[in-house]
Design brief:
The chain has 292 residues and is of the alpha/beta class. It has three domains: 9-95 and 186-217, Periplasmic binding protein-like II (D-Maltodextrin-Binding Protein, domain 2), CATH 3.40.190; 97-184, D-Maltodextrin-Binding Protein, domain 2, CATH 3.40.190; 220-286, Alpha-Beta Plaits, CATH 3.30.70. It is 28% helix and 32% strand. The strands form three sheets. The protein has a six-stranded mixed β-sheet. Strands 8-7-9-6-10 form a five-stranded mixed β-sheet. A four-stranded antiparallel β-sheet has the order 13-14-12-15. A hairpin with a 5-residue loop joins strand 2 and strand 3. The longest helix has 21 residues, at 198-218. It is flat and about 75 Å long. The chain binds phosphoribosyl ATP and zinc ion. Residues 56-58 line the site of zinc ion (ZN).
Length: 292
């Protein structure tokens, strides 16, 4: 009897960590529901032909490169550090962080030249080495797998090179933010050298399209407001992002209702311009999905 091949796409996701919930939330908004995943390595979705492999984030690039998973979600920092050949399908806008140099007060760090001859503790020796080489600097790299921020206080290193997001960890360890050498966010990746079946290519295209529409929606708000007719032209001039709005007449003939999709960035600037031009009843609504 012919054996049925499982043609579900396999997506590698961090098992337990900063990216896990955000990955699952994104999938949910894409219509991909996962249940009871807590202690299992592989879970299939009920609503999309997709299996999720839960792994340590450090293992994800290699699993994708080797085709054990077809695609994966992981930080760019991990891909760069592992030097693994995967192709980025989409930047996902979460898990944003920087790999930064940081120094205790008594060690100056005003420019890259201050690193010359120093001892630097890091969990990212490859990224750091490439940076030092590109700047023509030589320094001693101490590789640590965690708690890098305590290395200067222990006398293990002069400065550190570590992931920073809010900067609280540095502050708690009396370290100062130096400069950034790498910026990262979570990305959806596929193997750069493994051939996929046509069925899987079609499913991955569908998934990427869904992700794009969720991300577009996140970057936008639906704006509704009443505007004095006389200000309409000026408002359109002042806010170019108010592209082709819907304009609806109101019972009060001096006003019109305006509905438009606007970018989430600079929303508060936009609102203050609108208010100063006499807009009233301003409502901003989240958009769940924006299909293009
Ligand atoms: O167990 P597993 O190996 O899967 O997880 P992990 O412990 O290696 O990774 P995890 O869950 O900490 O992070 C997963 C990914 O999230 C990273 O690879 C980055 O791409 C991204 N990310 C975003 C971060 C941070 N922000 C972050 N702040 N990863 C780590 N940190 C750590 C950092 O190492 C430092 O200790 O948080 C501390 C600094 O944070 P702030 O906010 O105090 O500056
Ligand atoms: Zn890890």
């Amino acid at each position: 009897m012919e054996q049925k091949v499982n043609e579900n796409i396999r997506l590698a996701v961090q098992k337990k960590g900063r990216l896990t919930d955000k990955c699952l939330d994104l999938l949910k908004l894409c219509g991909i529901e996962i249940e009871n995943y807590s202690e299992r390595l592989v879970v299939s979705s009920r609503t999309f032909p997709l299996d999720i492999l839960f792994l340590r984030d450090d293992d994800i690039p290699e699993y994708v490169q080797d085709g054990v998973a077809d695609i994966g979600i992981v930080g760019e920092n991990v891909i760069e550090e592992k030097n693994i050949s995967v192709g980025i399908l989409e930047k996902l806008g979460f898990g944003k962080c920087k790999i930064m140099m940081a120094n205790p007060e008594h060690i100056p760090l005003n420019s890259p030249l201050d690193l010359e001859g120093r001892t630097i503790a890091t969990s990212y020796p490859r990224i750091l080495k490439n940076y030092l080489n590109s700047e023509g600097l030589s320094a001693k790299i101490i590789e640590l797998s965690g708690s890098v921020e305590i290395a200067p206080a222990l006398g293990v290193a002069d400065v550190i090179c570590d992931i920073v997001s809010t900067g609280n960890t540095l502050m708690m360890n009396k370290l100062r933010k130096g400069f950034s050498i790498f910026e990262s966010e979570a990305v959806l990746v596929k193997s750069a050298n493994k051939e996929l079946s046509m069925e899987k290519i079609i499913l991955i295209d569908d998934l990427v399209r869904r992700i794009r529409s969720v991300l577009n929606a996140r970057r936008s708000r639906y704006l509704m407001m009443n505007v004095p007719k006389v200000s309409l032209e000026r408002i359109m001039e002042l806010i170019p992002s108010l592209r082709s709005p819907t304009i609806v007449p109101l019972a009060d003939e001096e006003l019109v209702a305006v509905h438009a999709v606007i970018p989430s960035d600079f929303i508060w600037n936009t609102i203050s311009i609108l208010k100063s031009e006499g807009a009233s009843g301003i409502l901003l609504l989240p958009i769940e999905n924006m299909i293009s």
